[in-house]
Amino acid sequence: MAKGGKAVEEVPGVTPGVRKDFAQGAGVLADLTSITFIGAEDVKGRGIERHEGKVDQVLNYKFGSANATHYVIVYLTSDGLVTDYDVVDK
Length: 90
Description:
The chain has helices spanning 6-10, 16-21, and strands spanning 32-42, 49-50, 53-54, 57-65, 69-76, 82-89. A hairpin with a 2-residue loop joins strand 2 (49-50) and strand 3. It is flat, with a radius of gyration of 13 Å. By secondary structure, the protein is mainly beta. It has a four-stranded antiparallel beta sheet. The chain has a two-stranded antiparallel ribbon with strand order 2-3. Helix content is 12%, strand content 44%.
């Protein structure tokens, strides 16, 4: 997803909305050097929708890059497809 273009078109495990909306890539993810799982939250039934996908679970990660530490929130559908993510600095 960091590269965008054909890489996003062909990556498995993402919704069609992600393929379309992230075609330009996600640059901050390109600097990823380490990643740590923090936790998960079941949000099924809350009516959350991101990039044409219903969100059933939210995952939280901490990742390091060459320049900083970031936190990533990953939004998953009921069938485990990534439908969005947010990068949050400290």
